[in-house]
């Protein structure tokens, strides 16, 4: 397919083989928007075209437009139909059924069927790769009952399974991917067979990715004929391009300082989206003296949370009351939780009780994360008031990830992008041996509560044990949650109709949103 370019795409590529320099005048800035093309700015190329293993934001944005998931989510984080129309558990919770649309096709004309769903989930289960593998541990087997119905047999009742497999698993064409000896290693970097609202037709690495509308897309034909992702070196050049009319939308979430600057621009609209994730500090519980809860509490009382939210985040953040159950999760939030007070004297008292003096620790963080790069020095400086010395280690992304996975740190500063299903998410992050249990928490009572919540088949049933689990996480300072960010996505006022999702990865770049985007007026 790479060599077969529609005439409109070819004309555009020829006319724009050298991108205009951001900051130059652009005739587009004065012209009204049309449904011919929506141009999106990004700061990264696609790294992996295989949606089952993609690992960058641009990977997700592009492949989400090509490969369907069973469900999407609405602005409140609730699951909504996409490829799936209905989903339910059996009364005993040991099986689950999903019914599919019958009007979606792969771009080579073959129908999207239950066999594709079964192949996708079974491949992840067998090859054990990616976050999805850690979310479907209850799965025994998946079977295609009919072309439009899948039955999942579960090893144990798991009320998180349908949410996990529905939202996180991309469905790929069995007849294409099964030819690869290993799906995990399949590059899928040419001749794409896809089934989303747009199909990828041209790649100019380092410059642009061109996608064409799929006119017979089952959920409804997109308004826009063509999506173009343009690659920029950084957010600042994206902002200049947006202001000059060279692009219509910035894909990246804006740093708070940049959002504050754009707020008064009459040509720009800021779409605000509450995060389903959170920013946090985690303390390595397997390292002395961090294995002592009094020391962890001393560190929690040595953080000026309000200053971080108001200064580093420019007010685009909310308190979670030091709880992993954030205000973005109304079905689970615990109003009784209270944020740790910034109290250096209390920190000194707790350290004295623990017999710890001259405490010195190092803190790792991703130096490319603009928010954390702003508040990491604030954590260091507030800790000094409690007599605690924190040495900052701003690391290149790959080194940071490697140290996190190896649990090679004293303090980890980071953020979770989407924590939308507490029974599943807390299992990954805090259960003994959890995939992202960076703090190396080992707590049998916490494990039991998370297991109870995961067996529950409804949020109402899962709420009591998961709230108790969250209280343990709070009281033992297994996680020190700083805030929930209010994301800002910037687009031209010439466009409307976007459907936001509360995730930095999905925002208004999710497939249902871009399929419904249209020129304003």
TrEMBL record:
Keywords: Signal, Transport. SUPFAM superfamilies: Periplasmic binding protein-like II. CDD domains: PBP2_NikA_DppA_OppA_like. It comes from the Bacteria. Residues 80-430 form the Solute-binding protein family domain. It is found in: Cell membrane. It is a lipid-anchor. This is ABC transporter substrate-binding protein. It comes from Nonomuraea purpurea.
